[in-house]
């Protein structure tokens, strides 16, 4: 504590607190422009609005930077200070053409008593830059506070905004003074949130919302907290809040991707298929060619009757990781107790199923051992098979912060990415050869005896078998398989083993393989051998994808496991829920996502209830999947749009979007947070919880739930991981980490029978289908920043679709030249299962022979091509590797 005098009063400053901070804490915010106390911004002290007088010092000082010293006497008011401040505002005001009469800048000007300037303007007004679909730039309103620059450089670390020109001609610019829309801007909008003048603003101008609602982002597993600005029944803007996972940061989807909720194609009335019409793709804007509108009574009765007519073994349900914990829990309860089967699954099967299987086997828990934020304490970060700048952009910003702080980033991924320039090494190894690369690293660590002996001895089992297994995986033997030379493999292995603390973050490039479980086993072994988990700055973090995939899995949307991962075959696990739900549960594991499609095609599965998933786009081998779905006797789809899956339904139930209901959501860090209702559902659309409950009643269940609070409290009573939590507590605290509030897990022991982790040898040296002379390219599928999965939501978001609207296949420049292809040329991609047509986009991040196609475009749906072969343990398909050929099309078509 430092005692000093501020405006005549004795005050105390905490260690590291600036004069400005002390003053604010005590209730007086000193005027400020270039300064903000938002997380991630360092004080710069360039605007001079916050100056204060310090007794004995000749010049006024910027209070945002100055730390008080014992006995210091500070005046934040007084004639000298105020005169100086007014001059600052007058000079700035002279140059300022205001697009926003309520801006923070004008507010402060008024507060210090400056409404007009004595000085002549230096610059004339200039035309706004409206090249970006979501944001507008008005440089004549800019006061050069550089908050936008720091937002872009220090907070999000995108390095797009800079200062160009000198002296009076200096100005904010994007890249090389490009129009914003043509620059490398990724649309996170951090600069707009930071700008105090309206020089950087939303394209439609400054917003004046009627009300604000604190909620969450509906997209990825990072779980950003934000505030929605609402006018009438529409969301008009979103700003980041100080959530544990985002500290006010957002990405382009969270910032601008909410308008799908008011898209004219929203389903607003229950639909029943007309008699005799074929199950085929149709125009989502005009469902009434194939469906007729129905009342909720009729639609729900029809939906339930269709299920009741079929034997329980012929029924299955797909729940949603886009829905809340309460919806997921009720959905699996409906399938288990209403249908009477364990045939319930969700998109985790196409996602981290293999990672979860390996984690459960190895360390007894399928969730992350440490939050993303721990990268701040890591000496080394391994990022493998994930592209967070596109898919977890806010998490990526914390990785970039960590690198700037001094952490070493090592990327293992066949394709380059935006984070590559932050990495000390990016090993672009061959697709599908993760086990070869990782086993060679493990081999090095064992052979050179640089593993953590104490940790291995005290905390793990299986070392001897692993060491024996690794003998044949020397870097020299693996180098030709994975395409990385032995020396580099050794160097990276040593760096990881010797790091004081290290995190491993991974994604779909690891999990979506026919040997995805083996890939994860190798990563887990790496962390265990080196003791890189259970301590600060260390851990295993499979970056969870959907906003609630962790919660949906915890809540039991899994065919072999009940809520909290008790296996359905284990009596003790079942009896807990049998008692809680007053039913007998099926002891047989149910079918997984892809197995359901196979069973449907075979005719053994005949009725499906699909809530908030779009398998007619997201499953592998679409020809097979769509035929299977269309062949069902009874398909009920509960969605917000007439998706490719809903087009094949018998009954379509119009649901609520994320913004239209309240519920809890669990992010990738195991942090449960509150999503609060922002607007009402359109037309007759209803909250998912209500629909599931009504369906259950018609299946003979005596459910009386009226809201998420009742459901959540039931979950807390039955699930050990939620014990001690209540809806009331969650509501009050806004976020709770499970289990037990602990961010970093397993510092002492693992939740396995003997408390130790298992080292499991990994096999599987290549993908199931590799390029050959007929299909010479290796196709990898995945994501782009602006779009979400099957595009149902983001292609109906105006800004996102304008930013990225053209279905394109990425091709390496070398292959383009070899094939004589130019940017935008039309090509057909063909695999053994199907074909799609798309435009070519040059991508220097790809190695020759490799192609990349996102799966968000219905016009060129990647899954016509993909291989449905499954990992034997995780049952995940090999979405990351299929063999294709590329046929240039002479004429556009
Ligand atoms: N914008 C956007 N964000 C999203 C989503 C979205 O649809 N759009 N979806 C969310 C969901 S559910 C998920 S699961 C996450 C997924 O997030 P990620 O896991 O980051 O997603 P992907 O783009 O599928 O692929 C990741 C990486 O795998 C690499 N890869 C391909 N083949 C291999 C290989 O054989 N080995 C290795 N090691 N790497 C390989 C690719 O080059 C790519 O960089 O994103 C979430 N966030
Ligand atoms: N080729 C290829 N295929 C892949 C992948 C890949 O990398 N490559 N990745 C796989 C992965 S990781 C995943 S997670 C899956 C995702 O596969 P899906 O889960 O099938 O994909 P989404 O598009 O997220 O589907 C969500 C659906 O829910 C609807 N929806 C949104 N909000 C709500 C709501 O509140 N209530 C209701 N009832 N509906 C709602 C949306 O309109 C959409 O139709 O795709 C997998 N498929
Ligand atoms: Mo996913």
Automatic annotation (TrEMBL):
One of its GO terms (biological process) is formate metabolic process. Residues 176-205 form the 4Fe-4S ferredoxin-type domain. In the C-terminal section; belongs to the prokaryotic molybdopterin-containing oxidoreductase family. Residues 1-80 form the 2Fe-2S ferredoxin-type domain. GO terms for cellular component: membrane; oxidoreductase complex. It holds the Pfam family Molybdop_Fe4S4. Residues 210-265 form the 4Fe-4S Mo/W bis-MGD-type domain. GO terms for molecular function: 4 iron, 4 sulfur cluster binding; formate dehydrogenase (NAD+) activity; metal ion binding; molybdopterin cofactor binding; NADH dehydrogenase activity. InterPro entries: 2Fe-2S_ferredoxin-like_sf (IPR036010), 2Fe-2S_ferredoxin-type (IPR001041), 4Fe4S_Fe-S-bd (IPR017896), 4Fe4S_Fe_S_CS (IPR017900), Asp_de-COase-like_dom_sf (IPR009010), CT_Formate-Dh_H (IPR041925), Formate_Dh-H_N (IPR041924), Formate_DH_asu (IPR006478). The keyword Metal-binding applies. Keywords: 4Fe-4S, Iron, Iron-sulfur, Metal-binding, Oxidoreductase, Repeat. SUPFAM superfamilies: 2Fe-2S ferredoxin-like (SSF54292), 4Fe-4S ferredoxins (SSF54862), ADC-like (SSF50692), Formate dehydrogenase/DMSO reductase, domains 1-3 (SSF53706). The keyword Amino-acid biosynthesis does not apply. This is Tungsten-containing formate dehydrogenase alpha subunit.
């Amino acid at each position: 504590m430092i005692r000093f005098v501020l405006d005549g009063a004795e005050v105390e400053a905490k260690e590291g607190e600036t004069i400005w901070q002390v003053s604010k804490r005590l209730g007086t915010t000193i005027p400020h422009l270039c300064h903000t106390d938002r997380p991630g911004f360092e004080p710069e002290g360039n605007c001079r609005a916050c100056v204060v007088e310090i007794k004995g010092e000749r010049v006024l000082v910027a209070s945002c930077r100055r730390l008080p010293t014992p006995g210091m006497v500070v005046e934040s008011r007084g004639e000298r200070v105020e005169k100086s401040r007014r001059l600052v505002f007058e000079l700035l005001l002279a140059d300022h053409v205001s697009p926003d009469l309520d801006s923070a800048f004008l507010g402060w000007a008024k507060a210090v008593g400056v409404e007009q300037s004595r000085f002549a303007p230096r610059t004339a007004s200039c035309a706004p830059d409206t090249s970006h679909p979501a944001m507008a730039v008005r440089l004549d309103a800019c006061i050069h506070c550089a908050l936008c620059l720091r937002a872009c450089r220090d907070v999000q670390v995108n390095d797009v905004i800079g200062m160009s020109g000198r002296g009076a001609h200096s100005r904010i610019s994007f890249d090389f003074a490009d129009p914003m829309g043509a620059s490398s801007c990724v649309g996170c909008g951090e600069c707009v949130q930071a700008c105090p003048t309206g020089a950087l603003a939303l394209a439609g101008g400054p917003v004046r919302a009627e009300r604000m609602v604190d909620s969450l982002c509906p997209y990825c597993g990072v779980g950003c907290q934000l505030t929605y600005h609402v006018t009438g029944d529409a969301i008009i803007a979103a700003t980041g809040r100080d959530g544990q996972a985002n500290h006010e940061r957002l990405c382009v989807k969270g910032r601008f991707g909410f308008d799908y909720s008011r898209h004219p194609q929203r389903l607003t009335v229950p639909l029943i298929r007309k008699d005799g019409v074929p199950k085929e793709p149709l125009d989502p804007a005009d469902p009434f060619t194939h469906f007729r509108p129905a009342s909720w009574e009729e639609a729900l009765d029809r939906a339930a009757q269709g299920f009741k007519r079929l034997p329980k073994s012929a029924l299955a349900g797909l729940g949603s990781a886009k829905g809340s914990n309460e919806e997921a829990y009720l959905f699996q309860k409906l399938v288990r107790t209403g249908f009477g089967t364990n045939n319930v699954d969700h998109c985790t099967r196409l996602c981290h199923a293999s990672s979860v299987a390996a984690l459960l086997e190895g360390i007894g828990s399928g969730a992350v051992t440490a939050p993303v934020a721990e990268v701040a304490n890591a000496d080394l970060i391994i990022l493998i098979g994930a592209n967070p700048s596109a898919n977890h952009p806010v998490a990526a910003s914390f990785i970039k912060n960590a690198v700037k702080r001094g952490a070493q980033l090592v990327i293992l991924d066949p394709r380059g990415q935006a984070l590559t320039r932050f990495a000390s090494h990016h090993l672009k190894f061959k697709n599908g050869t993760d086990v070869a690369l990782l086993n060679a690293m493990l081999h090095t660590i064992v052979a050179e005896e640089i593993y953590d002996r104490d940790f291995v001895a005290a905390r793990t089992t299986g070392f001897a078998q692993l060491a024996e297994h690794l003998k044949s995986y020397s870097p020299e033997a693996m180098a030709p398989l994975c395409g990385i030379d032995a020396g580099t493999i050794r160097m990276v292995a040593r760096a990881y083993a010797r790091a004081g603390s290290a995190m491993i973050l991974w994604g779909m490039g690891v999990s979506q393989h026919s040997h995805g479980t083996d890939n994860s086993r190798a990563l887990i072994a790496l962390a265990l051998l080196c003791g890189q988990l259970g301590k600060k700055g260390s851990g295993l973090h499979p970056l969870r994808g959907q906003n609630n995939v962790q919660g949906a899995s915890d809540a039991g949307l899994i065919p072999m496991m009940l809520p909290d991962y008790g296996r359905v075959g284990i009596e003790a696990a079942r009896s807990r829920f049998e008692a809680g739900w007053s039913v007998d549960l099926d002891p047989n594991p149910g079918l997984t996502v892809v197995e359901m499609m196979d069973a449907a095609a075979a005719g053994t599965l005949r009725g499906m209830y699909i809530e908030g998933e779009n398998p007619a786009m997201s499953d592998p081998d679409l020809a097979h999947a769509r035929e299977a779905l269309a062949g069902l006797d009874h398909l009920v789809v509960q969605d917000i749009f007439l998706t490719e899956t809903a087009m094949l339904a018998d009954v379509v139930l119009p649901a609520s979007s994320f913004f239209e209901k309240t519920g809890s959501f669990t992010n990738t860090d195991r942090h449960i947070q509150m999503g609060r209702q922002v607007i009402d559902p359109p037309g007759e659309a209803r909250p998912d919880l209500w629909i599931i409950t009504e369906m259950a009643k018609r299946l003979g269940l005596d459910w009386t739930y009226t809201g998420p609070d009742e459901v959540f409290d039931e979950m807390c009573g039955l699930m050990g991981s939620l014990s001690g939590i209540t809806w009331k507590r969650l509501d009050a605290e806004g976020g709770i980490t499970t289990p037990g509030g602990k961010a970093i897990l397993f510092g002492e022991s693992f939740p396995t029978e003997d408390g130790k982790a298992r080292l499991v040898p990994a096999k599987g040296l290549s993908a199931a289908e590799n390029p050959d002379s007929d299909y010479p390219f290796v196709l990898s599928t995945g994501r782009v920043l602006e779009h979400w999965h099957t595009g149902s939501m983001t292609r109906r978001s105006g800004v996102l679709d304008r930013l990225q609207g053209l279905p394109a296949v990425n091709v390496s420049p070398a292959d383009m030249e070899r094939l004589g292809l130019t940017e935008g040329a039309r090509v057909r991609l063909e695999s053994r299962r199907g074909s799609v047509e798309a435009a070519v986009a040059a991508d220097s991040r790809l190695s020759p022979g490799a192609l990349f196609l996102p799966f968000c475009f219905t016009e060129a749906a990647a899954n016509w091509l993909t291989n449905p072969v499954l990992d034997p343990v995780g049952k995940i398909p090999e979405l990351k590797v299929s063999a294709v050929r590329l046929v240039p099309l002479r004429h556009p078509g």
